[in-house]
Structures are given as structure tokens and as C-alpha cells.
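Example record

One chain of 355 residues, shown exactly as stored in the release files.
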Amino acid sequence: MATMVDVARSAGVSVATVSHVLNDTRPVLPGTRQAVLSAIEELGYIPNTLARSLVTSRTRSIGLAVSAISNPYFTEILQGVEASALEHGYSLLIADPHDDPEHELKVGRLLHERRVDGMIVAPSADPDALVAYLGRHSVPTVFLDRVVEAPSDDPSPSDQAGPFDQVCAENIEPTAQLVTHLAGLGHRRISLVAGLPGLSTTGERIAGYRHGLAAAGLPYDERLLAHGDSESAAAERATAALLSLAAPPTALVTANNAMTIGALRALRERGLSVPGDLALCCFDDFAWADLFEPRLTAIAQPSKEIGAEAVRLLLDRLAAPDRPARVLRLPCAFVHRTSCGCPDQPEKHTKGNVS
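Predicted C-alpha cells for this chain:
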């Protein structure tokens, strides 16, 4: 097996120069760098990652803590994180916090103990303990999908990032767009199956729901808002409760893809059809949404882009630890299909605005 000495001899440079090329510890002339890289390729030299970490205090690894990895949305985020991390020479250590604050803190500590260079985290509804730990130990961290300081029902959240960078999709305007679309089709009793209380995504999508009602000139009726806790079984129960109202909704907005499945189960149990008995729009598009009958009108989040941007923010933070924190919001797309009650047509994607 080739050694660093072999690489140095082949490239005609010192071992120290090879080390500087591998570890980016000192500028090296482009021609010299290329000679070293060519020697590495020719000899098949494999750097000792452990030894490199001792020199640089970096492991070139990123900790990713994301719940519900089986969810297609988070799976696509993971793909975006992984592709971007590998492109920049980083490996991933992945853990599932299960949206549980106590387990989330354990996961954060474990990843930190593994000496990851930084973390990318989709925070729980109560991340205070983890945030305190990360701040106390100055762990470079990017929060994704959910902002740490969750806004209330105010349609203009402040996005106070504190010391952490954050990246997520726009939530308020796209949810309002679903509501106004349904109102434009004549619906006056529009329900929302919202996510887990405490998550910023839940608060923002509720804000978007109320904003959409107001824009359509419709009153807010708290009886038409139910919480599906961001998962299928709870959403099925929430939808059943809405359908049992004395004056049930004629249209329904579900606030994530898992809850869409639960809502469809509740409708099937009652022999109700979409959109004949109830119009349906959902937040979160997924690969098989256009295979349902009817095809699901949905808001598509830029999940892979969110993952890639999280890596970019983290690498920027590692390069400049003292720069101001940033919150990035990426636009979603309105995917117009038929579950809303519109006639079948070529699929349309309408981009929203970045806030």
C-alpha cells in the first residue's frame, strides 16, 4: 500500500507539502498541488482519515439528525444532504431523534462525541435542551425544515435565528394558496388538518390557512381546524372528527403527506369520494401523488434543495465561524391536479415567492 512518503517522492515534493495538499493547512502552488494529486491517483494512495483529523482537528464528517427518515419528504432531504456532503468530501453520521426532545438531546450529544465537524438538525417541537447544549459547546449547526423560534399565527413570522443558521421552505403563502384555490371553486367550509403543535411548520401552515380564509372573505371557524400531529393515524382520527360535525367541511387541506394518507383512509372508511363528496388539497407532494385517483393537488417543497442548502450553510459556518446567522426560505410550487375538483389538465407547477 502506497504511503505519503511514496506520494512525496513521486511528486518531487516534501512530505509536508503532501500533508498541506491533503489537509488544506497551507496554500500550495497550483502546479505543485496538481503534481501531488496526480501522484495520489497514480499510486492509489488512500489518506489516513484518523491521522488527518489529528492534524486538522476536523473529521470531515457531518451529523444529520432527522426524524421520520421513512417519510418521503425527509428521505429526499437526506438525499440532498448526502449528495452535497459527498461533493465536498464529507461523510454523514445519521440519527433519528423521533421528534422527542429527550431523545433529541441524546442524539445531539452522541453525534458531538463522535467529533462531527458540525450538525444538521430538523428540530423537535421543544428543542430548548438541544439548542442550549449546542450553544454551550459551540457546535456549528444548521436547523432545517423547522425554524427554532416558531412563529405563532402571525402571517409574517420574524425568523429570529439566534446563533444558528436555518433553511426551510416557505409555508404561509403556499398554504394560503391552497385555501384560496378551494374558495375560488365555491367552497365555504374549508378545513385544515394541521401538524404537531409546537412545530414551526404547524404554526406557519395554520397562519397560512387563516390568511387564505381572510383573503377569500371567509370567517375562521375553530371547529374546522383539527390537529393530525403530523402522522397518519392521528390525521385519520382528526379527519373523522371533522366529518362528524353537524355542518362538515366540503373541502379539506392536509398539512403534510403522512396526514394526507390518514385523511384518505378516513374518507374511504365512510365511503366518501374525492372530489365528489369532499375536495382535497395537500401540503407536500410525493412521487406517487399523481398515481392516486383522483390525482392529488399539492404544494411541492424543494426538499433536495433544502438539504443541499443546509450543507452549504454549514460549510460557510465552518469557514467563517463569526459571521452573522442566516435564515433561508425556499419557494414551493403549486402542483395543480384533480383532487381539488378541477377537470384533468396538463400538470402545472406554479412557483411561490421567497420571503
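Notes: The first strand starts at residue 61 and ends at 65.
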